[in-house]
Every structure is written in C-alpha cells, then in structure tokens.
C-alpha cells in the first residue's frame, strides 16, 4: 500500500501544459526528493496534490483513498500537510501564537471568537511543539524578530502540529545560510518514520543525503526516477538538471 500515489496527472495553464502525465508512488515512511530546474512543475505538482490547484485529469490516492475531488481541508484532515516555498506565517504574532493557529485550523480573524476558552491549553501544546524544533525559548517572541532559518523551523513545526501521515516540504532549505541549512536538515532527518516525507529542492547537492528515492521533473514530466545512485549516474539527469 502506497502512502501517496499519483497517476497520469495533468494540468495546463492557458493551453500550455504544466504537468504532463505525471505518475509516482511513495511508500509509507519513505523520504522522496523531487528535483528539477526552474519551471519543471515541482510546486505545481504539490499544489495539485494538496488541492490548491484543480487537476485537469488523473488520480491522487492517499493511503488507498482517492482524493482528487476532495477540497484542501478534507485532504488535510486525512493526514496531508505541507509547507510552502514562500513562507506563509503571521510576522506580527508570536511563534507560539502561529503554532496555536495551526492547531486550531482557524484563520487569524476567527481567533478571538472561537479560542478564548482554550488559549492556555493551546499555548501549552504550542510550546511543546516548538520544543520539538528547539524553539521553545523563543515562544513569546514575535515572528518578525527571529531569523529566516527559525521562520522555516516554525513553518515545519506548524505542519508537524497537524500530525500528518504525509508531509510535503516545498524547498525548506531555500535562502538559508550554511548553519541554518544544517539545522533544518537535521530537523527534517529527525521526523519520525510514521510520517512520509516528500521534499522539493532546487539544489540537489544540498538535499541528496535526505532522500531514499529521487524523482526528476523537466517541463512537467518525470524524466528520471530511482535511488540516489541511479539518478545521479543517469545521463539524462546530467543533461537536463546538471547541465552537462
């Protein structure tokens, strides 16, 4: 039983294909890396899996449940969580408040109407989750006051707070310093095997040691797929992704 199975997925914008017959299968607990040059369709694929975009055709199966027609929130309730290439957090709120909002699954605007009676327990749980990513000492600090790398860790913590079965990470290492990259890589490596991880990364060299299998996309198609050794040695990878 695959944790995530994508079958013949297609998506076009303005008549131009962005995802072309993409199929892939990710096993439970697997660490899958999706790479490819800019414009390969990596984030579009994630948006189709999560329901942020509607596919033109194909199938998406999450633990043997067909979810192609499900809205985003229902997919999340079934165990699918993600981070985004562009950080989507509330910079004027504290770290623990960002996590609490994620736990509630509510928008910031509805916070006061629905959460007042649970704030203490929510913040307690938020601090517990921040402790998992070594950010509990910064729980009361405004998000705008912490480093970019810490923001990335908060975003991953928010996704983990949903206790996902499948976690999609969209370029979690992008824009980080060498020290921040090492910290976030260690965090990703420590995610329990109960959670299947699929990660997009533009820099293959940075993320290779996190993956067990790799899928290479180019112009919306799967060009190469296999183990790290197989993908790195494949001449199509060198020609399309590495440029030689």
Question: What report would you give on this structure?
Answer:
The protein has helices at residues 42-50, 72-77, 95-104, 111-115, 119-132, 148-161, 178-189, 204-207, 228-233, 235-240; strands spanning 4-13, 16-26, 31-35, 57-62, 65-66, 80-82, 166-170, 196-200, 213-218, 221-227. Helices cover 35% and strands 25% of the residues. The model is unreliable at 106-111 (pLDDT under 50). The protein has 244 residues and is α/β, with parallel strands linked by helices. A six-stranded mixed β-sheet has the order 6-7-8-3-9-10, with helices on both faces.
Percent range for helical residues? 25-40%
**Structure summary, number of beta strands:** 10
What percentage of amino acids are in beta strands? 15-25%
Helix/sheet category: alpha/beta
